[in-house]
Write a structure and sequence with these properties.
By secondary structure, this protein is of the alpha/beta class. The chain has helices spanning about 15-25, 40-45, 50-55, 60-65, 80-90, 100-110, 125-135, 140-145, 165-170, 185-190, 195-205, 215-230, 250-260, 270-290, 305-310, 325-340, 355-360, 385-400, 420-435, 445-465; strands at about 30, 150-155, 180, 180-185, 235-240, 290-295, 300, 320, 345-350, 375.
Length: about 475
């Protein structure tokens, strides 16, 4: 029997162990998509305990706890920090096969030096040992970021944000990480949201103009994109259940927009009519600014209306959608490409039925602007598992050029989530190691080093122009 999650965890061949330990393990991290708070990074407060560090805001853990019948007061409620940790430890012992089990133990090893398996029986001991380490050490956000060797970190930010904390972070004299904003215009695109009209007022105020037409929306977003660019932004992010593509006459688009501004309900088809020209205009902005456009496809959000009313969004009640994405995505990318305004683009799918769809879509729109200009994004959210990451790597290897992949991002709200990069790198090296040892790829050490270091770090730095 192999030891529990030792230094060679997942590395099941000599080649895998060589690639990981000699070429990947010590590399820095480029986290080009996350949900960390720039305010928390700047304020740099020491956590009070491991529950505050681990369980606050982590809907992955809450979701698992609820599946074990844990009461909500131990997830988002008023239970004590020790009680919350005990319930999470109780849950974790049953989460066999769930990446949470591996992530939690990687983080205990990386940040606390604890290699004891976490369970209901060990919960109190590990809680006390971890809190002792926090009390005696430095677990502030910036320290954890630097300890994790994160060199670039892209947060997720609304176009109306003033980016004040990004500016303050950039002015810090002793912090060795670029913290850059990401332009996330979802609220300007989601015309069916109940607060859409109110948000138009917020966007207008941020842009210093009035918004009465769709052209005004686009102008306001352009103004904010230029401001974001001045603060270091080089990435945009949009999330859709299904990519929008429903071209219509300008007067039809304006009629839908006027309807939403008046507070009237908008149908799904009308929403697509509005989103299409706005997203096409955004694509041109991104292309002109030399940004990368991220498209996250396939999340079905806020399924539990009762819990949404009680807790709001991003609290663990989202799941995978099963909409048809190939044709609208193709037409959207083609419309941008036809006008020479298709930016560098990363396509993320949340439903693994779309692995082949996205992996084959890349080859339709590549160009000399960048190596693998159109990227197949890493396994995300519900696919961020051992099987999901392996399937994504295999799909890209089978159908694209794996060696130019930009690799992993955390998509996380936790400052200890960087163990996920180690998890990804181990899975990557294990897969490539098996291919080499089976005689499926040449044992060319120089090329293998370039490939695994590129996917782990170097390709992202070059692709996003972060150097």
């Amino acid at each position: 029997m192999k030891p529990f999650m030792d230094k060679d965890f997942l590395l099941d061949t000599p080649t895998a162990r060589h690639l990981y330990h000699d070429y990947c393990e010590a590399l820095p991290i480029c986290d080009y998509h996350c949900h960390l708070s720039p305010k928390e990074i700047y304020e740099n407060a020491q956590p009070t305990d491991i529950s505050a560090l681990w369980l606050s805001g982590d809907h992955y853990k809450w979701r698992a706890m609820r599946s074990c019948g844990v009461d909500e007061r131990y997830c988002t409620g008023d239970a004590s920090p020790r009680e919350k940790f005990q319930k999470f430890a109780y849950t974790l012992q049953y989460a066999i096969g769930n990446p949470l089990y591996h992530w939690a133990h990687i983080e205990l090893q990386m940040y606390f030096g604890i290699d004891t398996p976490l369970s209901a029986a060990t919960a109190d001991d590990i809680y006390d040992r971890a809190n002792g380490a926090i009390a005696a050490g430095d677990f502030r956000p910036r320290t954890l970021i630097e300890k994790s060797k994160v060199k670039v970190l892209c947060t997720t930010d609304d176009p109306a944000d003033d980016l004040a904390y990004h500016k303050k972070i950039a002015a810090l004299p002793d912090f060795d990480c670029k913290v850059l904003p990401t332009f996330r215009p979802d609220k300007a695109l989601n015309i069916q949201a109940p607060d859409f009209a109110d948000y138009m007022g917020t966007l207008a105020a941020a842009a210093g103009m009035e918004i009465h037409t769709v052209d005004d929306v686009i102008a306001a977003l352009r103004s904010r994109a230029e401001y974001f660019h001045s603060v270091g932004c080089r990435v945009s992010d949009q999330a859709f259940d299904v990519p929008p593509y429903a071209p219509a006459a300008p007067e039809q688009v304006q009629a839908v927009f006027a309807k939403a501004l008046a507070g009237a309900p908008v149908t799904e088809q009308e929403a697509q009519i509005y989103k299409t020209p706005v997203l096409l205009a955004l694509g041109k902005m991104y292309h002109d600014l030399h940004w990368t456009m991220e498209l996250h496809i396939g999340a079905m959000r806020n399924n539990n209306s009762r819990m949404f009313r009680a807790l709001g969004p991003d609290t663990g009640f989202d799941s995978v959608d099963d909409g048809r994405v190939a044709r609208p995505l193709s037409r959207l990318l083609d419309a941008m490409d036809s006008t020479d305004s298709l930016p560098k683009t990363i396509l993320f799918n949340l439903n693994d039925k779309d692995n082949t769809v996205l992996a084959t879509m890349l080859g339709n729109f590549q160009s000399t602007e960048a190596a693998s200009k159109i990227q197949y994004g890493p396994a995300w959210w519900f696919l961020d598992t051992m099987d999901g990451m392996t399937a994504q790597l295999k799909s890209l290897g089978n159908l694209g050029v794996l060696g130019k992949f930009v690799g992993m991002e955390t998509d996380s709200r936790s400052f200890t989530s960087y163990g996920r990069h180690a998890y990804f790198r181990r899975i990557l090296c294990a897969l490539i190691g098996r291919w080499v040892e089976q005689g499926w790829y040449a044992n060319d050490d120089a090329v293998l080093k370039e490939i695994v270091q590129g996917i782990s770090y170097n390709n992202a730095i070059a692709y996003f122009d972060f150097a």
